[in-house]
Amino acid sequence: MKAQEKYREMSIAEFFAKNKELAGFSNPTRAIYQTVRELVENSLDATDSHNVLPEVKISIKEVEAATDDKPAKYEVAVEDNGIGVPPNEIANAFGKVLYSSKYVIRQTRGMYGLGVKAAILYSQMTTGQPVFIVSSTDSSDNIYYKKLLIDIKKNEPVIIEEGQLLKRSNWHGTKVYLTLEGDWIRAKQKIIEYIKRTALIAPYAEIVFETPENEIYYFPRVTKKMPKPPSEAKPHPHGIDIEQLKAMVSFTKTKTMLEFMVEEFQSIGEITARKFLESIGIDPNMNPKMLIEKGNSKLLQVVATGLRTYKNFRPPRSDYLSPIGEELIEVGLKRLFNAEWVKAITRQARAYEGHPFIVEAGIAYGGNIIPTEEPVLLRYANKIPLLYEEREDVSYKVVSSINWKLYNIEEPMPLVVLVHVASTKVPYKGVGKESLSEVQELESEIKNAVQEIARSLRLYISKKNSERTLREKIVTISKYIPEIARSLSILSIPPDKWGTDGKNNNEKIIEKLVKIVSKSIELPKIDGKEEDPEKIVRSVIANVKLEQ
Amino acid sequence: MKAQEKYREMSIAEFFAKNKELAGFSNPTRAIYQTVRELVENSLDATDSHNVLPEVKISIKEVEAATDDKPAKYEVAVEDNGIGVPPNEIANAFGKVLYSSKYVIRQTRGMYGLGVKAAILYSQMTTGQPVFIVSSTDSSDNIYYKKLLIDIKKNEPVIIEEGQLLKRSNWHGTKVYLTLEGDWIRAKQKIIEYIKRTALIAPYAEIVFETPENEIYYFPRVTKKMPKPPSEAKPHPHGIDIEQLKAMVSFTKTKTMLEFMVEEFQSIGEITARKFLESIGIDPNMNPKMLIEKGNSKLLQVVATGLRTYKNFRPPRSDYLSPIGEELIEVGLKRLFNAEWVKAITRQARAYEGHPFIVEAGIAYGGNIIPTEEPVLLRYANKIPLLYEEREDVSYKVVSSINWKLYNIEEPMPLVVLVHVASTKVPYKGVGKESLSEVQELESEIKNAVQEIARSLRLYISKKNSERTLREKIVTISKYIPEIARSLSILSIPPDKWGTDGKNNNEKIIEKLVKIVSKSIELPKIDGKEEDPEKIVRSVIANVKLEQ
Fold first, then answer.
1. B6–A243: do the CB atoms touch at under 8 Å?
2. Confidence band for A180, pLDDT divided at 50, 70 and 90
3. Contact B125 A83 (CB under 8 A)
């Protein structure tokens, strides 16, 4: 007789505690990086997504030094001026895995309602310390605070301490303190890079970061222009599966299939709804609840398949999305690299599986960019910088497959390529949100975006090259002007006057030659700026004279 | 005033339904591949892990053809002769995400108790069909069957139909039928490759696979030798975090810290336990429950840190692990590639974060292997072949960084490298179980394993090369034997006898020269086989004569 297995249930909190690497907490370095990320992303979601100009303060303090045996302990604190968490939601929002405000169709940085809770679990597992949350909403007269742990077996918050204070200012926002084991020394560069790239893409945010060494990294607000915040959308029929349809039908208050189609889905008018229902042979007056009655599973399947495949629905609405915009990308790239040339593009919205997405790309060339064999790739998704797993990302696949020589760019190249994907559903490869899947529609959009800018860059570089050639020509010609002038001057005046008028005459001839050469040359305009050829000619002559 | 967010809870079933790509179900091709994988892995876990020689039958049938709009629907069925699921556990084991027999410290193919449920969710979402399970344990007199759906909002099974039959044979095992949308045409090669590689590493299994086109792939059992099954282990103190310690303390029946240490952990004797407790200043007679009393969190932290960092615990036990073994790997490689040279190695056990692991590697060279620029890499973890995300895997990192020229292997190389990692906790990068993280201890073990075999291969190749050089020498010398023999024969007998005895004499001289040359040559042994130099010399002479 064979031994039998013992079965048991695991809570989602226990699952992520036991498999912490799945959420990005694979070692003390990644853990502290991921903690900062999750807190900062929550802060930005609570501000710019609600039309608040973000002020984010990040601080990391060492609370226990490392020893040979074990990593140091750090307190990570992140404060924002966002919309705050309602007091009755604080405990669950921070103490229950898979409890979130983010399970709606909207472009948010967080997607799984998981990140901060994974950080809290990690903190608990490594230091046993509770998380401390201080929050106030705009409309509240109080500031609320709670200290809590997660009961991992039950996936429930355990309040250790809580209270409230009367608000004396008009502050609103959230501040979270976490204590965890981490490796700051190894994580430092990545964390700073993460914050830098966040500031690059959100120049309307003010970000202050204080390191354990009390260094301050301050990223001031450089513009008050903010992208339009994303808004919540109804589902698009192309993204619907049988289970979602069942859930929608069971929740709907509509009484007919016609109403159901018009009310519950994105941009379906009555005419489209009628045509669609006719095409799948469903009576527009049928009660939608019929679909989930026993014995009607065939009917349910017909509707679900129809929704996913009907060709004449309007494409997913993209006005719900919040791209960064060409201007902000260009500002950011210019500021960060002091680049010689930058250009950004925001593409038209596209969709995959019923989810709208927008690809934006930017290229920076020259300036302070250190030339390397491959372009430096800056990846973003829903305004989050992605720093790990670069080679697994669809953007890397696209950018590394481009033959840059075709764009007149020689190796090593002083080139930065930025790619941003905004979507109500970013196709991440893992819960840690580090790389994007090779969704075909996405891949071709990224390719088109990058190639379009690369073509502009080629134009710029070839203009620059022809300008260089011309400049070289000018220099060559100009160098001979003094010599020619001297010869002409000797020939044009009688030998007895050589001593007195010779020099004067020489100067006059040079003047004439400068005018002639300068006028016959037309320098190409670069970025609308025109250079004065005469200046170039004169400076060459001046140098030649000095050499004599 | 800012709008507030609405919060809600999501069940783990809903989470994976909405984020199906996280479990590997990112498109119809991956979905059907992943479904086969999860079912086959469950079947193998139910057989070889319990000392049953596996018989696994896989079939895929098309139940609805594809149209322009939507993928085809397939029924995937997998049957095994394993230990079966107890009737009272069937509903939860298949209808509740995060309900499993695998949440123990043991080397299993499944790890998360998630895979088959993700497949069932996908099936439900795309076809609405229930999963059908038939199962019987060895000791049961009945065969039980259930048809069920998962209630996604509640994460609970909904039984559609169930029953039992009296068992007329001694069959035990499980058979699962699932209907899902899939892209068989695109998935076909990967699925066949997956099964082939599974058979390679489990030559003791009998696997039959019937495709939708009614092709039969039959992998017969080639050996009855099975690796020792893995067994369940107690936790090693180095892998313990504060939360686990709390859970262990609350469940333990021991009354003193000394007992607690000895009973609840892996291979800690009384002496070690006493020394350890002394080192952290804990009274061996203290009741372990003290650690979770209020106000004692500092004490709890001291013990948790001590457990993780104390140097004198024995390393994690590896006798719980079940490697494949050098013999089976070599058999498998030889069979699959008809290779000229194969060698495998099973390394000593090592540990990371308290989890024991064993690395095994194998190299096949020549034969039917098609030479390519890089070696072909076959990756396995806990006997599962890994086919996707190769470039993200730590094995790929190691193998691609090896300079094969140093091992006398020229490009293109007819080389296959197999890497198997067995562990009670495989550090997968994602829930889809496709690639392994760069855990440092693992990386260096893989490197050592592959390099060790590569050194043997270098020896083989250099022997082979020097044999080739020698052979060329023999051929060169032997070619002259007839000519030399003729000259000697002319010189050694009187001219009047040339006509009669000449030929005879010539033959005798050749005979003598053959013996002399053959004896002065020593061919190197290859794989213990020795060739007869005389044969080579004679065959060369025969050819020279024919040429005349």
1. no
2. very high
3. no
Confidence at residue B526, expressed as pLDDT on a 0 to 100 scale:
54
Nearest to A1 among B139, B241, B430 (CB): B139
Q: What is the pLDDT of residue A1?
A: 44
Q: Which residue of A has its CA nearest to B244?
A: A125
What SS3 class is residue A23?
Answer: helix
Q: What residues of chain A lie within 8 A of the CB of B70, using their CB?
A: 305, 308-309
Which residues from chain B sit within 8 angstroms of residue A232, using beta carbons? none
Radius of gyration of chain B measured on its C-alpha atoms: 32
Instruction: Tell me how far apart the alpha carbons of residues A157 and B154 are, in angstroms, rounded to a whole number.
Output: 20
User: Residue A70 is nearest to which of B50, B99, B309, comparing CB atoms?
Assistant: B309
Interchain CB distance below 8 Å, B98 and A11: yes
**Whether the predicted pLDDT of A364 surpasses 60:** yes
B125 in A contact zone (CB under 8 Å): yes
Q: In this structure, what DSSP letter does residue B272 have?
A: H
Q: Do A304 and B70 touch (CB under 8 A)?
A: no
Q: Does the reported pTM lie above 0.80?
A: yes
For β-strands A216-219 and A206-210, DSSP reports them as antiparallel
Q: What is the pLDDT of residue B548?
A: 45
The angle at the Cα of B463, spanning B459 to B469, to the nearest 5 degrees, equals 150
Q: What is the mean pLDDT of residues B510-520?
A: 76
Contact B19 A112 (CB under 8 A): yes
- Asked if the C-beta of B437 comes within 8 angstroms of chain A's C-beta atoms, the answer is yes
Give strand pairing partners of B55: B206
Beta carbons within 10 angstroms of residue A458's beta carbon: 15
Calpha distance A526→B139 (Å, rounded): 85
What ipTM does this complex have? 0.83
Residue type present at position B141: D
Distance CA A331, CA A199 (A): 11
Domains of chain A: 12-219 (3.30.565.10), 237-309 (1.10.8.50), 326-459 (3.30.230.10), 479-542 (no CATH)
B68: Cβ–Cβ under 8 A, 6 or more apart, which residues?
A: none
Nearest-Cα residue of chain B relative to residue A84: B4
d(CA A136, CA A225): 26
* % of residues, chain B, pLDDT over 90: 63
Residue A103 to residue B10, Cβ atoms within 8 A: yes
Give me the pLDDT at residue A353, please: 85
Element (H, E) at A37: helix A28-45
Give me the mean pLDDT over the B78-100 stretch: 95
**pLDDT of A77 over the 70 cut:** yes
Per-residue pLDDT for A188 more than 50?
yes
Locate B402 and state its tokens.
Answer: 């090896």
- Which of A6, A104, A131, A243 is the best mutation test for B, with the most CBs of B within 10 A? A243
Does residue B75 contact residue B177 with C-beta atoms inside 8 Å? yes
Residue-wise pLDDT tens digits, A408-461 = 998 899 999 999 999 999 999 888 899 999 888 999 999 999 999 999 999 999
Q: Is A192 on the interface with B (CB under 8 A)?
A: no
Provide the mean pLDDT of chain B.
Answer: 89
Contact A348, A374 (CB under 8 A): no
* Residues B46-69 pLDDT 10s: 999 999 999 999 999 999 999 887
